[in-house]
Write a structure and sequence with these properties.
436 residues; alpha/beta; TIM Barrel; Immunoglobulin-like; 2 domains; eight-stranded parallel barrel; four-stranded antiparallel β-sheet; 20% strand; globular
Length: 436
């Protein structure tokens, strides 16, 4: 699954109605399956404790309402949201929103809360799960939004919430909505197994795993071997991961606090989207090189009114076919090219094989800066197996290499027709797919 995250207040005129047929058609060109509309539920604004101008989407004031500013006519805001759900589904996409189970605004009366907050989140108060009323209230809230047609929740900071509550909540919602999707924001890899196997989340952020690994490879010159180590750690949890290079909490890839150059994204993007069958998330504007130059320290603000230049250009392009500079357009085309590979059954339903262990610098492969893997599948009706070799170059220098396809792979996986070695050339900070 490819998920597109967007903060609707910075898109177009900041209204639900800015998302129509053209916007959803655009997402289809990126092979998007679901849209996570961030900051829908009504949060506190205009209070002394509020951070920023409109306030944080994670300081929920009324769990049964949407933000008035997201509707052209604030009095009809819920109807506008319901129409957005309908349009999203008509386009063949799922719609996700945030579910914030750890904390609410100090002014929220929907659930019992404590008199204190976690960390420096002074615009929130922690929900009091020692009281059964909190459990029942949060379940009612979840069912309220599922009843509106929402397809799933991105659940905020779940490691700070009693896991027994979350397990109960997931099970209760699925009794009535069996296909409802739960995505968990998790930061400790040691907790992955609990939330996958016991609590039964569908997807988990692989932030402390693949994201941190790729960032270290790009920004700190860390070894690309770390990608293999994370893959080995995840094992059977691979399909339950949600990979990403950007989201609202992290610095923009193109910002000077991260890579400083949007064109360097492609080896990391290839690993995140193509390597292990996990789902992948794009953050709005990433595909045209948004660098958060209007924000603070490389982040597009979720606290203040802001108009990122790249988002404005992108909205104009979607509506008129014009407005993107040549460099932004080139980047977008490359994102489309890479993500279109996911429509190939080799990637969407195939198997994965890490080739790094059987390749060495002797043949031009540098395990510190290069990464190679094979995706393959055995089609029905005894047709010949299909395979695609993907080689990623996390180096500032172009690379030519001979990639070994070991005998045990070719013999055991019915891939005996594959050549024992494939010669490839990969540009600097890029990837190459080779259909074999």
């Amino acid at each position: 699954m490819i998920i597109y995250q967007v903060l609707p207040r910075i898109w177009g005129h900041g209204h639900f109605e800015d998302w129509g047929a053209k916007e959803f058609a655009y997402l289809k060109t990126l092979c998007v399956d679901a849209v996570w509309f961030t900051g829908v539920i009504r949060h506190s604004t205009g209070k002394d404790y509020v951070k920023g101008d409109p306030g944080s989407p994670y300081s929920i004031e009324d769990y049964h309402d949407v933000n008035p500013y997201l509707a052209k006519d604030p009095e009809k805001r819920m109807q506008d949201f319901e129409r957005l759900v309908s349009r999203t589904h008509k386009a063949g996409l799922k719609l996700f929103i945030d579910f914030v189970p750890n904390h609410v605004s100090p002014d929220c009366n929907d659930v019992p809360k404590c008199g204190w907050c976690d960390y420096d989140w002074t615009d929130t108060r922690k929900i009091d799960y020692s009281r059964r009323e909190a459990w029942d209230a949060m379940l009612e809230i979840a069912l309220f939004w599922a009843g509106k047609g929402v397809d799933g929740f991105r659940c905020d900071m779940i490691e700070m919430v009693p896991p027994e509550f979350l397990k109960w909540l997931v099970a209760e919602v699925r009794k009535r909505y069996p296909k409802f999707i739960f995505i968990g924001e998790v930061y400790d890899r040691g907790n992955y197994r609990r939330y996958v196997d016991d609590v039964k989340f569908d997807l988990l952020y692989d932030k402390s795993g693949l994201y941190d690994t790729l960032r270290a490879v790009i920004c700190q010159g860390a070894s690309a071997r770390g990608i293999t180590r994370n893959w080995q750690f995840l094992q059977d949890m691979q399909p339950r991961m949600l990979n990403f290079l950007e989201n609202h909490d992290e610095q923009r890839f193109a910002s000077r606090w991260f890579a400083g150059d949007a064109s360097k994204a492609f080896p990391a993007l290839a690993v995140g989207a193509l390597f292990n069958g996990a789902s992948f998330m794009l953050y709005a504007g990433q595909e045209v090189g948004a660098d958060a130059s209007e924000g603070a320290e490389g982040r597009t603000s979720i606290f203040n009114w802001t108009e990122p230049a790249e988002i404005k250009m992108l909205c104009r392009y979607i509506r008129t076919g014009k407005g993107l500079a040549a460099g932004n357009m080139k980047l977008l085309c490359r994102y489309r090219e890479l993500l279109s590979l996911l429509s190939d059954p080799v990637f969407s339903a195939g198997f994965n094989y890490d080739l790094c262990w059987c390749n060495s610098i002797l043949h031009g492969f540098d395990p510190e800066r290069h990464f190679a893997f094979l995706r393959y599948r055995r089609p029905p009706r005894k047709r010949k197996a299909e395979a695609v070799l993907v080689v990623c170059n996390f180096s500032g220098e172009p690379a030519s290499m001979k990639i070994n396809l070991p005998e045990d792979l070719r013999a055991a996986k019915e891939l005996g027709w594959l050549p024992p070695r494939v010669e490839v050339s990969v540009p600097a900070w890029d990837y190459i797919p080779v259909h074999l």
